[in-house]
């Protein structure tokens, strides 16, 4: 299979494997050089060492910045810094934009101030705005001092918006034209560019006051009569965004309308920038990752090779909550200790009730969190969705509770135990559905991330509730 025939993921994995092999060889040769006593042999090892370093340099030079970022994220800290030192300095800025926040922190910590300034100077104003919050303040000031007035104003504008707002993500490189010129004039104007800004699929049409009047797609321009005015062929029904709009809402709009770029206008309709699909893809990916982390109770994205203490800080809070809820569940079991001693089968069966409830609750909570994130559900719709989930839970409880009830009857020769098992599972699934709707809805109403710790909370409710329901029913009907 040739390189071009390989899937992108396979090529990326191959590149990672090659870099890892070169790093291993680098460490081996370095160790031999330090151990070697004979000058002749030492010279040979030194030549091999230089050849290996050159190979590693050459390999990194061939890779896209995003691929290098992936490799850096996949390496332990010492190897990561070794590779980082071998990357050409003019590519540092691009790679820093691609790596995760946690890995970016380790790379920035390893760089001197002048290296950070040199890396930042390679970036456009909108790219620098993405990186600026992670840079030392003095570095940002020094870089801003080297910008021209227009770039400095653009950077300050982007930094004035909060993370997660459209204004912090907008691109200032765009092509603008007036509506009263012909398509032929526009084509001649475009030919004056060495290259168009990335993701240019449309040209923005403005008036003398920079107020957006419409857009002219490149495809429409190419097939239109050269003598036709832009006003005759442009589209006026345009999806626009304001700088204070939520970036997640903008990303959903890009997905819904299949946008590549979209204009950003101020409250007067003045064109001030544009959004591009690559930024929106990043927003969607980051939101997806954040949602997964929040469900598990992780506060932030974690460097896979982070120091132990950093990982502990990231994970301890919800583990503490989990410990408290587990203690509550154990006390529920303790209350029914006599019933368990009287009928040992209860100890074998109660984890089934709790486990099925937890799984069902996680299914419900995942659906609700997704609906809230996509804007498909409003908090006032919780009652309607709860009734729907209640119906699902009752049917699943009767069906699968009946199955496990028959199994319990067969195993322990007790029809009553089978009925208790069926009833307990049905009631715990109802509890799981209720909490699966209630927990994220309440979190949303309190202004918190509805996914935050939801998986931990739903497990706590279904464990404690499942034990209480099952052992309570057993105490009433089987003792």
TrEMBL record:
The UniProt entry lists the main location of this chain as membrane
Q: Which UniProt keywords apply?
A: CBS domain, Cell membrane, Magnesium, Membrane, Metal-binding, Transmembrane, Transmembrane helix, Transport
Output the Gene Ontology cellular-component terms: plasma membrane
Q: Where is the CBS domain?
A: 234-290
Mode of membrane association: Multi-pass membrane protein
Q: Does the keyword Methyltransferase apply?
A: no
What parts of the sequence cross the membrane? 342-369, 390-412, 418-439, 451-478
Quote the InterPro entries the UniProt record gives.
CBS_dom (IPR000644), CBS_dom_sf (IPR046342), Mg_transptr_MgtE_intracell_dom (IPR006668), MgtE_N_sf (IPR038076), MgtE_transporter (IPR006669), SLC41_membr_dom (IPR006667), SLC41_membr_dom_sf (IPR036739)
Q: Which domain of life is it from?
A: Bacteria
Q: Does the keyword Iron apply?
A: no
Q: Where in the cell is it found?
A: Cell membrane; Membrane
Q: Name one Pfam family in it.
A: MgtE
Q: What's an example of a GO molecular-function annotation for this chain?
A: magnesium ion transmembrane transporter activity
SMART domains named among the record's database cross-references: CBS, MgtE_N
Indicate the family of this protein: Belongs to the SLC41A transporter family.
Q: Supply the NCBIfam families for this chain.
A: mgtE
Q: How does it assemble?
A: Homodimer.
The free-text function statement in the UniProt record for this protein reads: Acts as a magnesium transporter.
User: Could you tell me what this protein is called?
Assistant: Magnesium transporter MgtE
Classification lineage: Bacteria, Pseudomonadati, Pseudomonadota, Betaproteobacteria, Neisseriales
